[in-house]
Amino acid sequence: MDQNSSPLAKYQRESVSVLLNIWIYFNLVSNNILLPILLFTILVSNRLQRHATFINVCSTWVLSGIFSLLLFYAHQYRDSEPHKALCIAQASLLFGIPPMWGAAAFVFFYYVYKSLEGKTQQSEFGTLVSWLMFGAPYLFQISFSAVALVISLKRPDLVNRQFSYFYCDLHFRPLALARTTFVMFCIACTSLVQLLLIYKTYRNYSAIRRLSTPEAKAQLHSILRCVVRVSTLAIYVAFGSVLELVSIIRPESILPQMYMATVGTVVFLVFGTQWDVLCVWFPCLFKQESQQVTGDSLPRTLKLNRDSIIRS
Known about the structure:
By secondary structure, this protein is mostly helical. The protein has one domain (22-294): Rhopdopsin 7-helix transmembrane proteins. The protein contains 13 helices and 2 strands. The protein has helices at 7-44, 52-68, 70-73, 84-95, 97-115, 122-125, 127-154, 173-209, 214-249, 255-261, 263-271, 275-281, 287-294, and strands at residues 159-160, 169-170. It has a two-stranded antiparallel sheet. The longest helix is centred in the N-terminal third of the chain and has 38 residues, at 7-44. Residues 5-12 and 288-312 have low confidence and may be disordered. The chain crosses the membrane at residues 20-42, 54-73, 93-113, 125-151, 176-199, 220-239, 259-282. Keywords: Membrane, Transmembrane, Transmembrane helix.
């Protein structure tokens, strides 16, 4: 009996096909539909204000979803050997995504930490620093993708779907190790900033608890909401960096690919459920909350913003 036609081989093909459909679903719905809707809402609504570092976090996963689904949009996602030019393009573009989201995550959490100190304006950061904060993720993405493109054109035999069945990937270990090292460095810096953020939040929490005014209590709730949302994303991204190491040790494992496909969903659930966003999407259901969110009667003792300190 032919090994490819055996019941076990057929079962394995069907299992991979199901996982491929799930992977496509997460990338399509979350990264190509929901997050663009959230970004569009923030950009066109006068009632929503978000800093550029937050826009970067969302844009990172939008680009990730688009690049990941190039084979799907070209109707070649079930082909074992897609068109070589398309495969090289996808492998090169995707190679720069992990450095991009690593840099975007660090810059975002750095801004959140600085916002607790009230240093959230461009004049306080400096024009050059502000531009670096905004452009760094895209600069790293372009750099890694450009190097991957050069190697892919010189060694097209290294670009295939042998291990990364969901998409075309470049299997060049030295560059993969460099990418993983960079991403781990970004996540380590992000974790350090997160610890500093928790420490500063605890100090502010203790200071506010000694106040008994309604404004102070509202301020306290605002801080806690922000910390819970930001910490949720931080933990999820940190675990993803661990899986980045797994992809180096065991390139045939599909767990890292499946996990990273869900990050866009987490980003949407964390930040797409904020009160001011819900008020814009569902003004009839959240009319009362909308009036509470848009008003800013809190004292600026701790220099925090209402509902979330990630606003500019």
